[in-house]
């Protein structure tokens, strides 16, 4: 089994936007602290900052730091990162592609689904909703896009280029029945992928129609679970 590749060398290719005369933490170390903190599953930046402070001694020792970033530094980091989202996306896609270089030679099995970002709701705004694509081999969301009130099928169109970049023309995407619009499925095929739509019992009427449709002679691919 291949050793996983750290995302840090890819992320640190994003230009350091800080004033170097006032920078306290090495660019590499700042990314490491943020990534380790995010793995702890904080709900917001405040919780992330608190976790970092709780692990202060261990982080200082492991990363050879004089101190760890405070809450204000973490806020500024993410605020500035918002202005570098194209570079962030490019870095993460390059990292995923490097993790599985052999994926160009076999089919990548993916799952597309809509998810609400926990802790993103505000008094005057609803929670952020993203369409995410999950890659089973890495147990990782490899790309996502904000839905912005759009139907999930329309948001998925924005991710097809990313999937083609990562996996070429060898990927299979499982989709909910809500995605089965001819315009979208034809775009999936055109992008080099294939799709599979499991019909669950929460779409009972649609499932019944599908059984009838696939009962026609020559279309015997329906399976009951």
From TrEMBL:
Residues 10-96 form the H repeat-associated protein N-terminal domain. It comes from the Bacteria. It holds the Pfam family DDE_Tnp_1_assoc. InterPro entries: ISAs1_transpos, Transposase_11-like, YbfD_N. This is ISAs1 family transposase. It comes from Deinococcus sp. VB142.
């Amino acid at each position: 089994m291949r050793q996983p590749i750290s995302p840090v060398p890819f992320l640190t290719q994003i230009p350091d936007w800080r004033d170097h005369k006032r920078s306290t933490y090495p660019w590499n170390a700042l990314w490491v602290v943020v990534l380790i903190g995010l793995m702890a599953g904080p709900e917001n930046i405040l919780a992330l900052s608190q976790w970092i402070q709780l692990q202060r001694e261990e982080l200082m020792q492991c990363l050879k730091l004089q101190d760890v970033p405070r809450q204000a530094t973490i806020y500024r980091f993410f605020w500035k990162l918002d202005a570098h989202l194209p570079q962030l996306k490019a870095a993460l896609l390059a990292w995923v592609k490097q993790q599985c270089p052999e994926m160009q030679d076999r089919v990548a099995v993916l799952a597309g689904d809509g998810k609400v970002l926990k802790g993103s709701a505000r008094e005057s705004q609803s929670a952020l909703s993203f369409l995410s694509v999950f890659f089973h081999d890495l147990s990782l969301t490899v790309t996502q896009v904000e839905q912005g009130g759009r139907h999930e099928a329309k948001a998925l169109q924005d991710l097809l280029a990313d999937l083609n970049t990562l996996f070429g023309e060898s990927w299979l995407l499982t989709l909910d029945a809500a995605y089965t619009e001819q315009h979208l499925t034809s775009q999936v095929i055109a992008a080099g992928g294939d799709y599979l739509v499991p019909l669950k019992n929460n779409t009972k009427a649609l499932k019944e129609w599908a059984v009838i449709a696939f009962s026609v002679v020559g279309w015997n691919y329906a399976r009951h679970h």
